[in-house]
Amino acid sequence: MANPDQLRGSEEAVAFVRAFFDAGKPVAAICHAPWLLVEAGVADGRTLTGYPTIRTDLRNAGATVVDEEVVVDDGLVTSRNPDDIPAFCAKMIEEFAEGRHRGQSKSAGESPRPAVN
Fold first, then answer.
1. Helices and strands (H and E) in the chain: how many
2. Is residue 63 packed enough to be buried (19+ CB in 10 Å), middle (13-18) or exposed (0-12)?
3. Which residues are catalytic?
4. Is the pLDDT of residue 38 over 70?
5. What is the pTM (predicted TM-score) of this model?
6. Separation between Cα atoms, residue 16 and residue 112, nearest integer Å
């Protein structure tokens, strides 16, 4: 099983994430998973959160980073850590039930970052 640090080096995993944004589908990422959003080139201009040790990376990618239990930005749901799972799951289900979000595909407008091997 791969962790988010390993997955962000996988062209297939990054393309998979980017395809969800291109299609306007809701996306949810917790703990270190927002690293994949950076690699997919979709963090820029978004408001999100993540595990404290990756927040500088998120800001460097152009995201507005907040320290909140759960953050929703037009179909993108992020949370900080396992303690946030109940709120994360509730918001994730809500966003998934809403279906496609136009803001998702707008954030995917830039070309993705090349995968790191």
1. 6, 5
2. buried
3. 31-32
4. yes
5. 0.84
6. 11
